[in-house]
Every structure is written in structure tokens, then in C-alpha cells.
Design goal:
304 residues, Aminopeptidase, 2 domains, 13-stranded mixed β-sheet, 9 helices, 34% strand
Length: 304
Amino acid sequence: MIEAGTERMTPGIRECIRKCFTMEDPRYFEFFFRYLYKPEYFFVDVENQAPVACMCRIPHDVMFNGRILRMSMLSLGCTLPEYRNEGRIGRLIETVLDACEHSELITLVPGEYSEAYRPYGFEPIYYRSDYTITRDSSRRITSIGCAYEPNPLDMLKVYSVFIRRFNGFYARDLDYFVNLKREIGARGGKIVAYFNEKDQIQGYATILVGGKEATVEECIYLDSMALNKLINAALQERSTVHLRVSEAENLSRLFPDCRKETFPAVLAKLNDPSLFSRLFNTEIQTVQEAFAISQHPLYLNERI
């Protein structure tokens, strides 16, 4: 039986995720359950009074063409190994989507779930690019102005300026950046910021290290100097860095010798084309048509 999550179910939900996401960093889930988790975010398939499958639906306020839209990001859908191949995850998806269709215009899922969700009407709407940068292929500059562990308020300030170029982004607040610092720290990463000669923050980068390479999962910058400073800081951690940015940020001129791969980062489902059309004074039928009216490039880096 599928039920809404309750505090009583929390140990079972944690165990379900622990057993199903064995390839994910367990430190991330420790952070998630400590700082982000709420039992009401979950839909749970219960068998013998214990969770055997679950799915997370977290609501967010998203800025789109000057309006705030409530959207949900679906994630962490999983079934315990001994209960798989019984159609449980499909029933969970249908139940969650029914709830979404009655409460929001658009529902989101991370790109890595593309195969599971496309049959339910989800389509890619946001792409990211991964630039593979080495010390030999980047412009070498000094680290003057760079500092680790920036203040969350400084991060919010520079993000607020950077994001003006974009559309379709989470409405972040100070608590978001407090939690972002907690998450990166929990995963063994670092956050580096660049300040100009007036001691004003010009950008920051989140750096995660794995093996011989580092990944800049988010890079916020106000100009090319800030970007180069941040990438050079990441290259001090490892000699190869994967820089992940939105597809709209074409950095090929800055990094002409770097390999670039583009991938779908977020899929979306349009729940009510008629209502969306009335709200934005347009005529659309598909989710791609809905996002095509965007006045600026999209920016949806979050996975949860």
C-alpha cells in the first residue's frame, strides 16, 4: 500500500535508500537526512508495516518569466532488491504524478532518470556542458584574491547578480547557501571564492575531488577573470578538472583546447497546458513549447 511518509517511517526510508543507492556517496545521504529531509516529502510503498519502496518529491519556488511557479523535483525513487520486478516503482510514479497534476503546472526530474520517466511524459528541457580542463589547456594566473570557505551571504550576493542572465531557476535564499556549504563539506569538497581588489566577491566554485580528477559542480562568476581564477584554484587540487555549466554558457573561446560534452540535466512534465497558456498569454501544448517562451536561458543545477 502506498502511503504518505511519516516520522515513524524514517528509519525504513533511510534503510531503503542505503540499500538501493550503493554507488552514491553515503556522506551525501547523511547530510540529506540531517538538513533537508522531511518525512512528508516521501511517498512510501509499505509491506508488512515496513517501507519496501519510496520516492521523494520536494517542492520549490522557481522563477520563470517574471513569475514564481511552484514546481517539484522528483528523486530517490527506489525499491528494495527483494521486492523488485513487481511493478512497485511504476505504481509509485503514477501516484506521485497524480498528486503533482493536481497541485502544480510543471514537475521536474534529474536527467539521469530519463529512461524511467520519459514514458510518463517527461522531456529534456535543460542541458549542461562538461568541459575537461587540464593545467596545460588553461590560462595560468596567480591565486591572489582567492579564498576558501566564503560567507554564505557573500555567495548569495554574487549569485543574485549572476542569475539575472538566466530564467527558470530556484529562488535561493540564505539558508540555501548555508546548506550548500554543509553539503560540500560533508562530501569532502571545498568552496573557493574570488574577491576583487575592493574585496568584493566576484564568484565562487564548488569543488569535489574523486581519484585523480576534480569536478566543479557549480561555478558562479561575474567575468572571465573570476572564472579563470576559480578554475586555476580547482586545478591546484587536481591536474584535471571537469567544469559543469549550463549549455548556454559557451566557454569554448576561453577553453578552445578542452573536450566538451553536453548532456540532459533536467527533464520536465507539463501538467496543464491550458492553464499554462492562459497564465503566460500564449498557446502551447508540449513542455518543450512551454520552455521555449523563456525570455532567458535556463539555469537548473539542482538534482533534488
